[in-house]
Amino acid sequence: MLNLQSKFGQKLTVIGNWIAALVTINLVWFLINLPVLVMLILAFSLPMNQTYALTMSLVTVMLVAFTVPATTAAYQAVKTWQTTDSGSFLRATGLAYLKALMHWQPNVLIAVLASGWMILLRVTTTNVMLHVVTLVVGVVLLTLWNGWNYSQFESTSVIELVVAHPFKLLLSAVATIGLFAINFELRLIFCILLFSMSLAALATYRIFNPRIKATDDNQATN
């Protein structure tokens, strides 16, 4: 029988808590975004007509209400996890979402940019050069969005982050793209359900805060 008080047992407990935190935060994010994901799948299957335009308009509204604040909430929950080691991640993520929902002005701006980029990505599919440019623009927008999400719980602004840490922000965007690309390239759709967003937020946090907390080290070595 496994002794959780042993060194090995304590390491397993730390790993289990770490996985539980990632999954809990990500599940909240996924459930909030489920209507958006369904609507996006529908939009991608439609021809470029009035129905597609109406669907993308609805997607934009849903991005404002669900995706943008939920993503900010995931970043906030990861911050709470990493700094306080709180165990109530379900409640923490939910409360962070409700708080982020109130910031409707930046939410609208981000949603409009994201929706416009998705439309442009589809429009440029027949032109390789324009399509590549659109992809590069998407990486830049994602870099800025990650910076904005991170800046929400730090005493700094997006502009200051871009000026001071452009490569760290770019690395966080690459990590985010990689984690979500796994879902489509390897057909591991369950990843987006379990840890894609929470792990992307954790990667961004660790890029800016590489030193692991002393409390984590103590838990792993005791």
Distance between the termini: 20 Å
How much helix, percentage-wise, in residues?
Answer: over 70%
Report the uncertain regions: 213-222
Specify the structural class.
Answer: mainly alpha
Biggest sheet features: none
Summed over residues and divided by their number, the pLDDT gives a mean of 86
3D architecture notes:
By secondary structure, the protein is an all-alpha fold. It has one domain. Helix 1 packs parallel to helix 3 and helix 1 packs across helix 9. The protein is globular. It starts with 6 loop residues before the first helix and ends with a helix. The C terminus is likely disordered.
Write a concise synopsis of the structure shown.
The chain is mainly alpha-helical.
Please describe the topology of this protein.
Blueprint lengths: L6 H38 L5 H35 L4 H13 L2 H20 L4 H24 L6 H7 L1 H20 L4 H5 L1 H13 L5 H8 L1
Organism: Lactiplantibacillus daowaiensis
Protein name: Integral membrane protein
Keywords: Membrane, Transmembrane, Transmembrane helix
